[in-house]
UniProtKB/TrEMBL annotation, chain A:
Residue span, SUF system FeS cluster assembly SufBD N-terminal domain: 156-213
Family, as annotated: Belongs to the iron-sulfur cluster assembly SufBD family.
NCBIfam families xref list: PRK11814.1, sufB
Domain SUF system FeS cluster assembly SufBD core: start-end pairs: 221-463
Domain of life: Bacteria
One Pfam entry name: SufBD_N
TM annotation in the entry: none
Protein name per Swiss-Prot or TrEMBL: Fe-S cluster assembly protein SufB
InterPro entries, A to Z: Fe-S_cluster_assembly_SufBD, SUF_FeS_clus_asmbl_SufB, SUF_FeS_clus_asmbl_SufBD_core, SUF_FeS_clus_asmbl_SufBD_sf, SufBD_N
Length: 492, 249
């Protein structure tokens, strides 16, 4: 039985003093009322059967959040979010889903078809009621139960811990206590603080010293992942000399009722350890007129804590109405390395403000940034990146390359690099280009027999090649397909 | 093969082609000469279906079928090829990748199977050698940083691989030195075929020393105003286009 379900069942058996929560709600109810208060934080913590220290940690975050204001420095524009008008806890299945695929948005279904997703799996992704409870459907998602079993066995043998963070909080409190909030402090920023108070669930990965994780870890393999909700929390720790490659998300868009997403991801790499973190983000971008769509405010940060450690972020962002995301590396250990490879695609009315921060603290630290922004329709695509060298970071090196590709003339691409060097021996290089798919280039392709969609895909694939190469093989092919689909209808 | 009747076409409301009549029988090579601005490139774009041109009257019969309403990519797959006066650069897309995509797109449109990689490689190698197109060029992004001569050879390479029924060559000689001109012309001549028609657009007679046409047409102010044999090109070379300038008014 999935751990979460177990927890929910256990909790629902406890007779809870309703009054304590200050609102009349049955603990068996799957949803807390709208709005945020200390009581809601307590409720979430109790629902997850958390130890006291965790509750205190959340409450502390909540109190600090009350004193903070939303940041306004990014280039994205959206109506003010009413934080009192949101649900902060809703258990799996509490929002009624469609009864069958007939009730699902046909555009979503068309997308599944193009991606070649099996029928039963489409039901799960679309949130059709009961779909994920059926064993047969689960099999469809995970190839087969035996795959999952073998997979778990193998990880166990290697000593790798890979589970829901709620499970880790109960089972491995010492590790969680030591690292949670050690990379993204509770008060880091408005959204991270909010996440710290109310996070729903997420992944926990621990790779012991000297272990090379025997397989790519993918959220796709974790059953609990299905309903982690809007405030996801992930913590990955690679001990000395360990290696792990982690894949987040999948290329199929999921039905999602939550408009606001504010995840926090923390990575810790100790001496000689390496973490590769790859993301494909494909949430609902809103309709043709720019209505609806997910607001995605994410804090992702990796700490190269040990000497010679390495953290590499690779992201393919095609979804969400608003993306606000800067996966960063703190290069603390001497000779540590940080990498950021990004493809951000925006179409329709999407707004993307994304980039990275490379904070060079240790000696001879190196970082590399390759960012490819593609803007089509009426979208806005901003790369925002900071590279800084601390006084002690002698021999720090950075190479940044930011390319933007415009499709049509109603979209915008912007590059906002910040460079701060407090060490004279640091060498930072920056290259940036902006190009456009011109009508005559397109006609040239058509004249050779390519359709306008094939032509755009060809040109775009050429443009993003350097980043696609960084993705694990099976992801790379899907990501390419996804990018082409996201840009469909952007010309002609 | 190609029959153009009373073709009128305009761009942004401005009429450029004003009643073009032209017949190119299967297997023949015809030249179109004419002063700058007479509408030669426009004709090539209208033939190949470029967006932005309004055909206001007349018809274009290709293999007996009117293709005026046919989208550009369908015309390409049906066998219409245009060697561009100014070939476009496509950064990030290796020439080889582009060739394969184009060949397979056309095959798919015609209901044929995609080429296997060895088959494709063999075809490219054979055609490239004849045109002095190096492997290194094939690996580079399409036309990016190519010299004028390399770009034109690359156009003829594409023509050789796509095996069109009708090839329109727009000022393929422009920007070529005499050696490059010879290579390109030889490439074109090698593609002369009883089943293939060609329309060679040029401003200068010198190309026609190498590619000897069956007929020469003179275009002026959006019309074909004179048609003759290869000797007409020599006459134009001697007299210039002065006689035809008046028609532009
Ligand atoms: N996109 C355009 N918009 C407006 N006028 C154009 C455009 N393209 C060509 N023309 C005009 O059409 C006429 C014919 O041009 P073109 O076909 O390029 O002639 P040629 O190839 O014979 O030199 C010229 O007067 C030119 O200025
Ligand atoms: Mg011209």
């Amino acid at each position: 039985m999935p751990a979460i379900q177990e927890t929910v069942d256990q909790v629902s058996q406890i007779d809870v003093d309703q009054y304590k929560y200050g609102f009349v709600t049955d603990i068996e109810s799957d949803r807390a009322p709208k709005g945020l208060s200390e009581d809601i934080v307590r409720f979430i913590s109790a629902k997850k059967n958390e130890p006291d220290w965790m509750l205190e940690w959340r409450l502390d975050a909540y109190r600090r959040w009350l004193t903070m204001t939303e940041p306004t420095w990014s280039r994205v524009h959206y109506p003010k979010i009413d934080f009192e008008d949101l649900y902060y806890y809703s258990a799996p299945k509490s929002t009624p889903g469609p009864k069958s695929l007939d009730e699902v948005d046909p555009e979503l279904l068309a997308m599944y078809e193009k991606l070649g997703i099996p029928l039963r799996e489409r039901e799960i992704l679309a949130g059709v009621e009961g779909a994920s409870d059926r064993r047969v459907a689960v099999d469809a998602v995970f190839d087969s139960v035996s795959v999952v079993t073998t997979f778990k066995e193998e990880l166990k043998k290697a000593g790798v811990i890979f589970c829901a963070i709620s499970e880790a909080i109960r089972e491995y409190p010492e590790i969680v206590k030591k690292y949670l909030g050690s990379v993204v402090p509770v008060t880091d920023n408005f959204y991270a603080t909010l996440n710290s108070a109310v996070f729903s669930d997420g992944s926990f990965v621990y790779i012991p010293e000297g272990v090379r994780c025997p397989m790519e870890l993918s959220t796709y393999f974790r059953i609990n992942e299905r309903n982690t909700g809007q405030f996801e929390r992930t913590l990955i720790i690679a001990e000395k000399g360990a290696y792990v490659s982690y894949l987040e998300g999948c290329t199929a868009p999921m039905r999602d009722e939550n408009q606001l997403h504010a995840a926090v991801v923390e990575l810790v790499a100790l001496e000689d350890a390496e973490i590769k973190y790859s993301t494909v983000q494909n949430w609902y971008p809103g309709d043709k007129d720019g209505k609806g769509g997910i607001y995605n405010f994410v804090t992702k940060r990796g700490d190269c804590r040990g000497d010679r450690s390495k953290i590499s972020w690779t992201q393919v962002e095609t979804g969400s109405a608003i993306t606000w995301k800067y996966p960063s590396c703190i290069l603390r250990g001497d000779d540590s390395q940080g990498e950021f490879y990004s493809i951000a695609v925006s179409n329709g009315y999407q707004q993307v403000d994304s980039g990275t921060k490379m904070i060079h603290l240790g000696k001879n630290t190196k970082s590399r940034i390759i960012s490819k922004g593609i803007a089509a329709g009426r979208s806005d695509n901003t790369y925002r990146g900071l590279v800084s060298a601390h006084r002690k970071a002698s021999g720090a090196r950075n190479f940044t390359n930011c390319d933007s590709l415009l499709i049509g003339d109603k979209c915008g691409a912007h590059t906002v690099p910040y460079i701060e060097s407090k060490n004279a021996s640091a060498v930072f290089e920056h290259e940036a280009t902006t190009s456009k798919i011109a009508d005559d280039q397109l006609f040239y392709c058509l004249q050779r027999g390519l359709s306008s969609e094939e032509a755009v895909a060809l040109i775009v694939n050429g443009f993003v090649k350097d980043v696609i190469q960084q993705l694990p093989m099976e992801f790379a092919v899907e990501a390419q397909k996804l990018i082409s689909i996201s840009l469909e209808g952007s010309v002609g | 093969m190609l029959e153009i009747k009373n073709l009128h076409a305009s761009i942004d409301g401005k009429e450029i082609l004003r009643g073009v009549d032209l017949i190119v029988p299967t297997g023949e090579v015809h030249a179109i000469m004419g002063p700058n601005g007479s509408g030669k490139s426009t004709l090539s774009y209208v033939l190949s279906g470029r967006d932005g041109y309004d055909v206001t009257d007349g018809e274009i019969l290709f293999d007996g079928k009117d293709i005026v309403e046919m989208p550009a990519e369908e015309r390409a797959s049906a066998g219409v090829f245009l060697a561009f006066q100014y070939p476009l650069e496509i950064p990030g897309v290796a020439t080889m990748t582009f060739l394969k995509a184009a060949m397979n797109a056309q095959r798919k449109a015609r209901g044929e199977a995609e080429l296997t990689t060895p088959d494709f490689m063999r075809r490219v190698k054979t055609a490239a050698e004849k045109l002095n197109v190096t492997q290194e060029m094939l690996r580079r992004p399409l036309n990016v940083g190519f010299s004028g001569g390399e770009k034109k050879r690359n156009e003829i390479l594409q023509m050789a691989l796509l095996e069109p029924k009708l090839a329109v060559l727009d000022e393929t000689d422009s920007g070529l030195d005499i050696d490059a001109l010879r290579v390109v012309s030889e490439g074109v001549n090698a593609l002369r075929d009883p089943g293939r028609s060609m329309l060679v657009i040029t401003h200068y007679q010198r190309l026609l020393d190498h590619i000897v046409p069956d007929k020469v047409h003179v275009m002026s102010a959006g019309r074909i105003v004179r048609t003759g044999g290869p000797e007409l090109a020599l006459e134009l070379e001697a007299k210039g286009y002065a006689d035809y300038a008046g028609e532009a008014a």
